[in-house]
């Protein structure tokens, strides 16, 4: 059991050291590597976190974030990457979007709220781990998050998860709203068609009614004319001469 635990710890240590190496390498990426980082598979969700896009700590000041934004925007600018200008433009837009999010006080606060929630959830997770260790009598072993760097990484992972969850909720609400608008529009079209049919029916009925009235008037007029002709065409019989 202890050998399995030891092996697990070693595997985690290897994994974590690889992650740290990647983070360290990413901080000094070349223009081409920065473009790859921002457009890599899964970047849609990674890029939801503006702190991740600009490679800054959420607790950095706005001035520090601005400096990093400027350095990155120069690195990936399409004019500086003519051989890959289309992808450079995409990366440039991603960086600009992240900066605009953090530059705005309201949206930056929302992002910081997500970061704070990530810290709270991470602290709760750590508390649960400690309780379990105490229950199992393994308090002396400690937990990976006792290391400040690993604690920071755990917050980073939780932050990414919360940004992804928020985006999924947004997409769900957007889809639901779109379907609702579609149903509403279909109902409006159906109502408009029904009103059009009723209007057409009323118009046809009025026209046919008028035709019936005109027909009846014509019939009545014809009947009177015939009677008149009969009267006008009547010739009384000649009186017979008296016989003497």
UniProtKB/TrEMBL annotation:
Pfam families: DnaJ. Residues 174-188, 196-215 have a biased composition (Basic and acidic residues). Residues 123-146, 174-244 are annotated as: Disordered. GO terms for cellular component: nucleus. PROSITE patterns: DNAJ_2 (PS50076). InterPro entries: DnaJ_domain (IPR001623), DNAJC8 (IPR042858), J_dom_sf (IPR036869). It comes from the Eukaryota. Residues 49-116 form the J domain. PANTHER family: DNAJ HOMOLOG SUBFAMILY C MEMBER 8 (PTHR15606:SF4), DNAJ HOMOLOG SUBFAMILY C MEMBER 8/LIPOPOLYSACCHARIDE SPECIFIC RESPONSE-7-RELATED (PTHR15606). This is J domain-containing protein.
